[in-house]
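Forwarding the complex inputs:
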Amino acid sequence: MALVISDLSKYVIAVFMALYTYESFAAFRGRNEEKKEGIYTRQIICMFIVHFVSFAAICLETSDLSYIIFYGFQQILLFATIALFRAVYKDASRLLINNMCMLLSIGFVMLTRLDFDRALKQFKIVTLSLLLGLSIPYLIKRFRFLEKFTWLYGVFGVFALAIVLILGAVTNGSKISYSLAGYTFQPSEFVKILFVFFVAGMYAKSKDFLQVVITTMAAAAHVITLVLSKDLGSALIFFVVYVVMTFIATRNYFYLILGILAGCGAGMVAAKIFSHVRVRILAWQDPWSYIDGSGYQITQSLFAIGTGGWFGMGLYQGDPTAIPYVSEDFIFSAVAEELGVFFSICLILVCLSCFIAFMNVAMRMKNEYYRLIAAGLAVVYIFQIFLTIGGGTRFIPLTGVTLPFISYGGSSVLSTLIMFCIVQGIYCIRAEEGEHDGRKEAEE
Amino acid sequence: MAGKKRKNDGEEILTENKAESRADRKKGKKKKRNRNRELWIVTYVFILCMLAVIGNEIYFVYAESETAVNNSYNPRQELLASKNIRGQIMSADGETLAQTVRGEDGEEERLYPYGSLFAHVVGYSTRGKTGVEYLGNMALLNSNAAIGEKIQNELTSQKNIGDNVITTLDVEVQKAAYDALGVYDGAIIVSEPSTGRIIAMVSKPDFDPNEIAAIWDDLVADESSSVLLNRATQGLYPPGSTFKMITALAYYRQNGGDVSGYHYQCTGSLTNNGHRISCYHGSVHGSLDFQKSFEKSCNSSFANIGLSLQLEGLEDTCEDMLFNRKLNLSIPTSQGSYVLGTDAGDYDIMQTVIGQGKTQITPLQLNMITGAIANEGIAMKPYLIDRIENYNGGIVKKYEPEKYATLMTPEEAGFLTGLMEGVVENGTATRLRGLSYTAAGKTGSAEFSENKADSHAWFTGFAPVDDPKVCVTIIVEGAGSGGEYAVPIAKRVFDAYFSQ
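Prediction (whole assembly, two chains):
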């Protein structure tokens, strides 16, 4: 019976995910938030159905009471998050809250299916992160002097990355984490945010040539430290964010072209110097020839996506655990295998909807500092998704970064949550700016 | 489709927003739009990147996943095998070629009712997977049985019955080809030129796939006879005189479609710079025009033609004929090779243009070239699976014929058809003359060792000439001349095909 339920459930899940995705783009139409009340309500209903039906399939398959209890806790957490944000921050973007909860719930479903213990651990981290995150928009709105510590962010960032390089544990050939009380802690996830604050602060102050040079040197220090730690995925994210923010701030196409050329050059040099970069490029070009070794991960990922097909195998009907590091680096392939490629495309579009919401507030902000922060965080977010999903589907070589909100990993989920909450804070500032404008106009 | 729909949504928002900013500008806030230009560029670029990722994923699932997932490294195959009983492989006329039966002890066994008749083309599934067992593996493992039945099976812990693969193979034609090849080693491919359907495919020496477990170790240990190799698709042979079709085409192209000026006096051999090319068994063909040279398969005359060819042109023609590249087929094949180059010496040229030299070809490639001649220059993609059905006969998937490549123009195909018709009427394949159907073809006797008496017998051709229905390619290893050994086999295959 469980087979039939999971067979049918995947279609129900796909339909409601599609409806959700539709609404997450419909929400961009018009600016009257009150008129969009219906959209947000429908989104929450879709989210509830997707989550409920998924867990119905999981519980039937496992016949284990603890899964039902776990589901209950998740449901409480998600609704509490939606309700609390709404109550505390009336100006926050409800679309972003919904999207965040939708992505978190998909993450819970997949992690529960892959590894119950890890899902529990992830749930605890998410709960604590949300409690912490709830205060962030307030802090952002209140502490308008963050800009003053710009240099501190840069120095602290490089320092934290350097410590990892020197002391950090060696994982998968890259030195990227500290271990603390049983939890491994990956500083680059947080330094990304500090880095965005640093670059935004630098350019909010001045955009002259000297400032660009100084910022470039600081950015280079970050990137080189990461490259030395062999954390090339993060190095790439830092680099791209820096180039894009420089372009947005200076509005100078010359810097953009220079940045792209430098990136290509650095890529070629990296391929020459680092054997593990070469290995990944080869495995990307022709994974089938290296199926026994370096191509194993990517081919397993392709098997998962390909065998699942458009509507997936159904929860527990596939074999996603055959992919090494599935819950960290290849969770997208697991989603595609069991919930279907159609669902996975909707998932990408929901992420895209978050990105557009980030960019949207950047466009509406007048304050250059917050404008740059919003745009920078948007790029951090979407580029990481591009790397992980593009890598898992063999669009680009593998870089081994996580899928924000969905992959297993405390640092990843906490840092993404902080990013979302910062942007919510900027939404609140924007609302104040708007009121201010309104008053000014009235006075005139 | 869904992806596309979503994309439109994304664009709509952007255009809406654009419309807004246009409205703003009208209100005199021109500055605002300019302010956000870079942000718009960045937004668009990343949206494009993500749409490209989506597009790539859709393309993979749509076009590549079917072959990609059919890999022994994919652990999902075992998962499916534990849930479903492997489906049947059937011939086009509904005969069972492979099926899984359950013994009283619950052990599953794969049976092949025709024994060694379909050994290579249907293949086996227990020591790796080959033939149709490989090509249709994922379909055979999957079950599209009715949902109600699946529920029942689940409740009673029964396995579902897997889907059936209906091939393009015809039992009668396969039998005729198999028997006609007799005790010889070699290969036969019978196909339909207008679609690429493979009607029969034989490779010998063969084996009984029912016994594969018992004979496996011996087969693998025996390196000399390579029994497991499907010679029809993977055997590489010197093309012998069948290559003269390509030489003739290159000459035709070089002379702008007019070969009427060609004349040659055959004295049984041609000597050039001390190198000598002899006609088969020392025949003396006398006065020849181009048509006669081809009909009689005169080595001296073709060596003479070869010496007048521009080697770039010959190389281009060979590349058009699918040499030196991996065939893009789901069927595993070997790659035909043409290595003469453009600065070769006279002797190598003379050898190569009559199909000796270092050139190598698979029977499948030759069959595709012959099929293209029969099909106005267009080679169709050879295929073995016609459709997938669930076990009740409901169609799950139907495979349609696909064009593989245009090898030559209709005029060039017509020219070669004329030459090949002459081979049957007046040349080396007269055993196919005066039958209830008309045929066209080319014979070959490919020498493969120092001993000139040893040669592989080739025939490749099609029938009827006016409206080709069937295309046959035959190689008989070490038999002798194509006219004597391969053409009679072709006759038996044609007879079997047209007697239906």
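Chain A touches chain B through 61 residues (CB under 8 Å).
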